[in-house]
Amino acid sequence: QVQLVQSGAEVRKPGSSVKIVCTASGGTLSDSTISWVRQAPGQGLEWVGQINALFGSTKYAQRFEGRLTLRTDASTSDMYLSGLRSDDTAVYYCARAGYCSGTNCYWPGFDIWGQGTLVTVSS
Amino acid sequence: DIQLTQSPSFLSASVGDRVTITCRASHDISSFLAWYQQKPGQAPSLLIYAASTLQSGVPSRFSGSGSGTDFTLTISSLQPEDFATYYCQQLNSYPRTFGQGTKVDIK
User: Fold this and answer.
1) Mean pLDDT computed over A42-64
2) Is A9 in CB contact (< 8 Å) with chain B?
3) In angstroms, what CA-CA distances link B98 with B62, B76, B89?
4) Which residues lie across from B81 on neighbouring strands?
5) Distance between CA B75 and CA B101 in Å, rounded?
6) Cis ω on the peptide bond leading into residue A14 (within 30° of 0)?
7) pLDDT bucket at A74, cuts 50 / 70 / 90
8) Do the Cβ atoms of B55 and A108 come within 8 Å?
9) I want to staple B44 with a disulfide (CB 3.0 to 4.6 A). Which of A11, A34, B18, B38 is the partner?
10) Shortest CB distance from A116 goes to which of B43, B91, B100?
11) How many CB atoms lie within 10 A of CB A12?
12) How far apart are CA B7 and CA B27, in angstroms?
């Protein structure tokens, strides 16, 4: 079964950008929808956005519109966030939000997660 | 946006207890609800999807019910490994919102 492996922790200054890579191990992302979720220190889960690899379509949470770009290919999915602020400090997770097999597609919740990437934004 | 409100936010229970967590949606979401468990330092793990379908590999002591706006996650007999934080999530519309979480602690 596919596993998701994320790139390592990042430290950035306010106003800069960060890219996080989510790599599929043991499978492909070409038939998947990948969502990104973040969790600020001691806080709950916040959905950031998603990309459908089959159609190349994206959905972004409104608060990230204009700052967030998601890309994907058969083996990796990238999240690029610009204009970083201190309140963007969080662990960012990629997760499989759906997949297709043959002509059928399934949306069983977020069933596979990456290990998380800590992004620290500090001057 | 659809708001999800979990209750309680915190509960203290003993091994063997029956535990119930509720999730209320601000709008009708049919059965498009999932439940996750998260332990400290770990990514969330899917327990239940489509409100009541148990994810493969999840113990049968976990169950989910509900539709529309009111949902429940039940742990029939709490085990030591179940002490964690639980989140509901709606998959009916975008953005895919989460409840604020329920932390289950040891009494």
Assistant:
1) 94
2) no
3) 19, 23, 4
4) none
5) 16
6) no
7) confident
8) yes
9) B38
10) B43
11) 17
12) 17
Q: Name every chain B residue with its beta carbon within 8 A of the beta carbon of A109.
A: 34, 36, 46, 48-50, 55, 89, 91
Asked if residue B2 has pLDDT above 90, the reply is yes
Q: Quote the minimal CA–CA distance from B74 to chain A in Å.
A: 18
Preferred mutation among A94, A110, A111, A117 to probe B, highest tally of B CBs within 10 A: A110
Residue whose structure tokens are 């085990």: B79
Q: Comparing C-alpha atoms, which of B90, B101, B89, B76 is closest to residue B7? A: B101
pLDDT in tens, B23-46: 999 999 999 999 999 999 999 999
Q: According to the model, what pLDDT value does residue A6 have? A: 98
Cβ of A44 and B87 within 8 Å?
A: yes
Mean pLDDT to the nearest integer, B57-76: 98
Q: Tell me if A44 and B98 make a contact (CB, 8 A cut-off).
A: yes
Tell me the nearest-neighbour CA distance from B47 into chain A, angstroms. Answer: 9
Asked if residues B96 and A35 have their Cβ atoms less than 8 Å apart, the reply is yes
Cβ–Cβ gap A35/B96 under 8 Å: yes
